[in-house]
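[audit] Reproducing an earlier prediction to check determinism. Same input, same settings, fresh worker. If the tokens differ from the archived copy the diff job will pick it up downstream; this log only records the rerun itself.
[audit] input (498 residues):
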Amino acid sequence: MNSLVFYTGTLGFLAGVLIRSFVVVHPVLFLLCAGFGGVSLIGFFIFSRKYRLQLAIGIFLIALSLGIFRFDQVDTVFKNDLLVPYANQAVDVLVRVVEEPDVRESSVRLITDIVSLSDSLFVSPSRILVVTDLYPERKYGDILRLRGVLKEPGNFTNDSGREFDYVSYLKNKRIRFELTRPHVEFVRHEEVTLGIATLLRIKGFFVNLIENTFVEPESSLLGGLLVGTKQSLGKELQDNFREVGLVHIVVLSGYNITIVAESFIKFFSFLPRTAGLSFGALSIVFFALLTGASSTIVRASIMALIVVFGRFLHRSYSIHRALILAAVCMCIHNPRVLVFDVSFQLSFLATLALVYGSPIVERYAQWIPDKWNIRSIVVSTVATQIFVFPYIVHVMGTFSLVALPANILVLPVIPLTMFLGFVSVLGYALVPFVFIPVVYITHMLLSWILFVVDFFASFPFASLSVPEMPFVVTLCMYIFFVFVIVHHIQKPKTKPPV
């Protein structure tokens, strides 16, 4: 009974969010759906409690209505934003920087909340994305006066010829308007949230230590590995990481972060089980905090911890419940992530791959030696690549053909590189001469990663561009994956011949 209530409720809510993401539901249909669900529940409790289908229908319809209602709440707030009449007009606005500045090669992007408009207090649910010069530097908590033309962003076509839904991407971050290269005047600095400000100061201090210890591009790579400062790598090197399927180690977007998280656990596997699990989990938490604890990192880290704890405690039954519950909680907070947040979708698919796909792949990978965790890395990488392939092709139109060998050559050294990198940066700042050997070893590991990336990126066939895959075909492929997983679960656990 508990399982019935849980699954019908959570899946009903997600279904409501999914439907409302594509179509506007008339209030009459919404009320009819909720009313019919309520009548079904009342009938179940009053007349007969034998018909569990009646209970399931009632819970599902009510949860479906709640999902539609939650999306309507968020959508209505944006539609009724009082800032809309000022679109495409010159404005004089006072804003507060509410997230860490996103530093690019030739510009910096600031996510800001409105403090006042034309010297009058102004409350808006929307945020403004400000694109401005690199210097003078801006910080989290800065109050700025901006003068420029307020514009509503539009979608654009990416390098592979696909239309990128930039509008929905920004709405996930509560951004509806842009100010590009406005006149910027610094007003004052205010601490918005002391905890976040402290984390960002720690992150900035640590990045400075990295830059003082290593030269480019090794310093930028280590910064990307430890605290997610991937922008300093430069566009060309970032594109190389993306082509060879290794962007997940420097772009902390949630895609394949579970693979990196498992590497932490493997690194501490020499300890007793409880101690190793505890240190591994603490490493993931510390990693999330050190990168600034953004919503994307927190989400990906939570999903990684769910998988890690579930697999190590042999509680696979609890894992899929936890994943569904995590998805519901994320959709309650921001219902747009279910359809319009590619990072959420990729991290969710990668997590499902590790939970359900890895055991299937592992049955046919017993011939691979388990020394240095090679088998585990191959299994995790293959399962993840297979699971995300249809969606990546559908959304992005490109797929790395060298991801498997690149991951096999790089992932085994990632935990050691991160550990020695962290130790060498702090140690070199305190006792330089003592930690020079550790710095040298870390430099060699970073150079190896960069060599592998450059080597595979030089292949003309490193990545494959494919025609746009219809959503129906993508859906059919995932239905096929579900059948394979169900068949594997029901099949007796006998090892295939090697």
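[audit] rerun output stored. Observation attached for the diff report: The CA atoms of residues 68 and 402 lie 42 Å apart.
[audit] end
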